[in-house]
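Researcher: Sequence recovery benchmark, item below. Answer with residues only.
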């Protein structure tokens, strides 16, 4: 009994172990069957054949339209600053005045020299030369009369001498008077001719040259006086003023900036593989963090055909209207432009593409199962990517849940829709 009683527990233990083993084997078989019957819920959309515009954002800096750096044309001391930064100015308005007293003195001296030269010219034209010529003409007339009288007397005395009616001495006296009168007449004519043809024109020419020289000196002095006033060449807003009253500034030294902020320009740099897709008049979307979250409309106004030799990119300018005056010169901006249009291409959402060690795959749904499709992709834009090889349009592709599926696994479509 004891032994019998002692052996009974062993039988029970072996029975229990055997039951446990059988129970474990049954559980494993059930689990495997569950795994084999696993179904992954997914959402799908159709791959599409469409025209896909490709966009790219470019960084740039805002500048005022017609932004101008002002600098004096001559050196001098700053006497007065007539505007403040941020003030609106008109074209021609004086921004800064340099000291003028020395230049005013030069203008006065030049004015006096000009007036003296004009007076001399006027005197020659209306006084000295006409009077001198009149005197010479009178002398010529007198000499001509004397010559004619001497000539008549000479001819008469010659006839009398040939008739031996007068002495040789008397004839020679008449002949001498004739020769003297003739020389005086010819000399007077020569003097008159020289005065009319050479002396008077030369005197006038010299006087006119002196007037022109004095006029040029006066113009230069007045220009120097004007250059003491630094004016705005455009309607706009005053930017930074770098000069101070009393400061000595040299010619070409920047003293202020003026620009038109009613509209602004943004210059961006575009690489050679993108510049051909841009054209003047093209619309742009502009975002400026400093001006808020709103997207501003812009327009491409120039596309340089020449590459910048330093940066090896092409400068492109975008114009943006600034009626609300939100944009300031120097702000950072991002410009979004369409750089290409891919026509008649197959597209899928970017999120639908799964990458395995550099290989791109999209899953399609066929007969209730996921099928892995190895594809080649092209440009991406607006949440979509171009499929260049490996997929046709109109295919049901998995757009949600694709990270949980494998090739051949059963799937359950729980949602359908357009590509994102």
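Model:
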């Amino acid at each position: 009994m004891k032994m019998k009683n002692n052996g009974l527990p062993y039988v029970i233990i072996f029975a229990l172990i055997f039951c446990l083993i059988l129970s474990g084997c049954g559980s494993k078989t059930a689990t495997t069957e569950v795994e084999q019957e696993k179904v992954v819920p997914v959402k799908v959309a159709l791959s599409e054949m469409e025209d896909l515009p490709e966009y790219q954002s470019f960084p740039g800096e805002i500048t005022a339209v017609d932004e101008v750096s002002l600098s004096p044309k001559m050196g001098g001391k700053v006497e007065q600053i007539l505007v403040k930064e941020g003030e609106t100015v008109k074209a021609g308005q004086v921004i800064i005045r340099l000291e003028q007293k020395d230049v005013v003195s030069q203008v006065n001296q030049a004015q006096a020299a000009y007036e003296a030269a004009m007076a001399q010219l006027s005197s020659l034209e209306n006084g000295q030369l006409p009077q001198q010529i009149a005197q010479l003409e009178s002398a010529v007339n007198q000499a001509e009369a004397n010559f004619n009288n001497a000539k008549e007397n000479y001819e008469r005395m010659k006839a009398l001498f040939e008739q031996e009616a007068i002495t040789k001495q008397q004839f020679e006296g008449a002949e001498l008077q004739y020769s003297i009168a003739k020389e005086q007449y010819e000399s007077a004519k020569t003097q008159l001719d020289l005065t009319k043809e050479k002396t008077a024109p030369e005197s006038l020419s010299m006087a006119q040259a002196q007037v022109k020289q004095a006029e040029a000196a006066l113009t230069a002095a007045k220009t120097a006086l004007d250059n003491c006033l630094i004016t705005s060449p455009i309607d706009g807003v005053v930017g930074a003023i770098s000069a101070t009253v009393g400061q000595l500034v040299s010619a070409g030294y920047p003293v202020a900036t003026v620009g038109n902020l009613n509209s602004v320009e943004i210059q961006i740099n575009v690489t050679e593989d993108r510049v051909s897709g841009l054209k003047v008049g093209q619309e742009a979307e502009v975002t400026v963090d400093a001006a808020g979250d709103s997207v501003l409309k812009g327009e491409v106004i120039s596309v340089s055909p020449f590459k910048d030799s330093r940066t090896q990119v092409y400068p492109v300018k975008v114009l943006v209207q600034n009626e609300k005056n939100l944009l300031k010169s120097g702000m950072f901006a991002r410009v979004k432009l369409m750089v290409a249009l891919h026509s008649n291409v197959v597209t899928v959402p970017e999120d639908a593409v799964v990458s395995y060690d550099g290989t791109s795959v999209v899953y399609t749904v066929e007969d209730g199962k996921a099928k892995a499709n190895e594809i080649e992709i092209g440009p991406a834009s607006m949440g979509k990517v171009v499929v260049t090889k490996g997929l046709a349009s109109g295919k049901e592709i998995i757009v949600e849940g694709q990270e949980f599926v494998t090739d051949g696994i059963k799937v359950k479509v729980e949602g359908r829709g357009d590509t994102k």
